[in-house]
Design goal:
Distance between the termini: 76 Å
Order of helices and strands: HHHHHHHHHHHH
Radius of gyration: 28 Å
Number of helices: 12
Shape: globular
Strand content: under 5%
Length: 374
C-alpha cells in the first residue's frame, strides 16, 4: 500500500527566501557589481560604437541602394569612403587647429590672468561698488585669494585636460575598431534583423511581438530623422561660425566654432552653452571682439532656429517648446550632456505612446478623442 508523503511545511517560502538572500548579497556587494558592469561595458564598447555607427550610416547606404539602385557592397563602399574622407579632412585640417588653439590658450592663460588682475587692481578695486561689496580693508586679501583660486583652477584644468586627452586616445581606438565592425553589421543587417525577429516571435505572444515591432519602428523613425538631421544642422552651423570668425579675425576661431557646433546639437540650451565659453575665451584677448562674437553667435543661432533648423529637421519630434525644455532639464539633470541630447527623441517617443494611451481611454469612455472641456 502506497502512502502519501506529507508536504514539507513552508516549502512555498523557499523561493522567496532564496531571492531575498540573493538581493541581500547583491546590495551588500553593490560596488563590486557596478565595477563588474562597468568593466563589461568597457569591453563591449567597440560593439556599442559599431551599432551606433551602423545605425547612423544605414540611411546613407539605403539612399545609394534605393535611389541610385546600386548593389549593397558598392553602396557600402561609397558610404565608408565618404565618411572616412570626412574624418580625414577633419583630422588633417580642423583638429590640428583646435589643438593649437587649446595649446595657445593654455600658454597664454598666465598672461591673461595677470592682465585681468592688473585691470582689477587699477579699475574695479578703486570703485565705490567694490568698497561697498567687499570692503577696502579686505581688498588686498580678496585679490590675493582670487589670484590663488585662479591659479589653482588653471592647474586643475591642465591636469584634467591631460587626463581627458588620454581617455580620448583610448576612445578613438575603440571607435576605429567599432568602425570596422559596423561594416560587417551593415553588410549582413537583414540576417541580423531576421534572427532578432525570430527570437522575439519564439519568446513572446503574437500581440506582444506586433507591439514590439511597432515600437521599434516608431523609435527608429524618430531617432534616425532627429539625430541625422541635427548632426547636419550643427555641422553647417559650425562651418558658418568658423568662416564668420575668421572673417572677423577672431582668435581661437577653430576652437570656438567647434564648441558652437557641438553644443548646437542640444536644442534651446545648446546655443547658450556654446555662447558662454566663446565669449569668455575672446574677452581675455579683447572685450570689443568678445562683444562682436556675442552678437555674431546670437544672429547665427537665430538664423538656425528660424530658417536652417526648420528646413532640415521640420517637425521631426512633434514636441512643443515647453516639452522640449522639460525633457532636456530632466535628461541633463540625470545623465548630463548626453542626456540633454537624447532627451528630445526619447521625450518624443514617450509623447507618442502617451497620446495613444490617452486617445484609447477617451475612445473607450466617450467614443471619440474630441472631448469638449466643460
Amino acid at each position: 500500500m502506497v502512502t502519501k508523503n506529507k508536504n514539507i511545511p513552508y516549502i512555498k517560502y523557499i523561493p522567496i527566501i532564496i531571492i531575498g538572500l540573493l538581493l541581500f548579497k547583491f546590495i551588500d556587494n553593490i560596488d563590486s557589481v557596478f565595477s563588474l558592469i562597468k568593466s563589461f561595458f568597457s569591453i563591449i564598447t567597440p560593439f556599442i560604437w559599431a551599432l551606433g555607427i551602423a545605425y547612423l550610416l544605414n540611411p546613407l547606404m539605403k539612399y545609394f541602394e534605393t535611389k541610385l539602385r546600386l548593389k549593397r557592397w558598392f553602396s557600402l563602399l561609397i558610404t565608408y569612403v565618404l565618411v572616412i574622407g570626412f574624418i580625414t579632412i577633419f583630422l588633417n585640417t580642423l583638429l590640428p587647429k583646435i589643438i593649437k588653439n587649446i595649446g595657445d590658450l593654455l600658454n597664454n592663460a598666465p598672461n591673461y590672468i595677470d592682465e585681468t588682475m592688473d585691470w582689477f587692481n587699477n579699475t574695479v578695486k578703486h570703485t565705490k561698488i567694490y568698497d561697498t561689496l567687499i570692503g577696502a580693508s579686505k581688498s588686498n586679501d580678496t585679490v590675493s585669494n582670487l589670484l590663488d583660486k585662479v591659479s589653482s583652477f588653471t592647474n586643475v584644468f591642465i591636469n584634467g585636460f591631460v587626463n581627458k586627452t588620454i581617455k580620448f586616445t583610448s576612445s578613438m581606438l575603440k571607435f576605429l575598431f567599432g568602425l570596422i565592425i559596423s561594416i560587417y553589421l551593415l553588410l549582413d543587417k537583414e540576417s541580423l534583423i531576421n534572427n532578432i525577429k525570430k527570437a522575439l516571435k519564439a519568446l513572446t505572444s503574437k500581440d506582444t511581438y506586433n507591439n514590439l515591432i511597432s515600437f521599434f519602428k516608431e523609435v527608429d523613425l524618430v531617432f534616425s530623422n532627429y539625430i541625422v538631421g541635427k548632426f547636419i544642422d550643427s555641422l553647417i552651423i559650425g562651418l558658418i561660425c568658423l568662416v564668420g570668425l575668421n572673417i572677423m579675425n577672431i582668435p581661437y576661431a577653430a576652437l570656438i566654432a567647434f564648441i558652437v557646433g557641438v553644443t548646437n546639437m542640444i536644442p534651446y540650451f545648446g546655443p547658450f552653452i556654446g555662447m558662454i565659453p566663446a565669449v569668455i575665451i575672446t574677452i581675455f584677448y579683447s572685450y570689443i571682439k568678445a562683444i562682436w562674437v556675442l552678437i555674431f553667435i546670437i544672429i547665427l543661432q537665430q538664423f538656425d532656429g528660424l530658417f536652417l533648423g526648420p528646413k532640415i529637421l521640420g517637425n521631426q519630434v512633434g514636441l512643443g517648446p515647453i516639452w522640449i525644455i522639460l525633457a532636456i532639464t530632466i535628461g541633463g539633470g540625470t545623465f548630463g550632456i548626453l542626456g540633454m541630447f537624447l532627451a528630445v527623441p526619447i521625450g518624443a517617443i514617450v509623447k507618442i505612446y502617451l497620446d495613444k494611451y490617452i486617445n484609447k481611454k477617451l475612445n473607450k469612455k466617450y467614443g471619440s478623442t474630441n472631448v469638449k472641456n466643460d
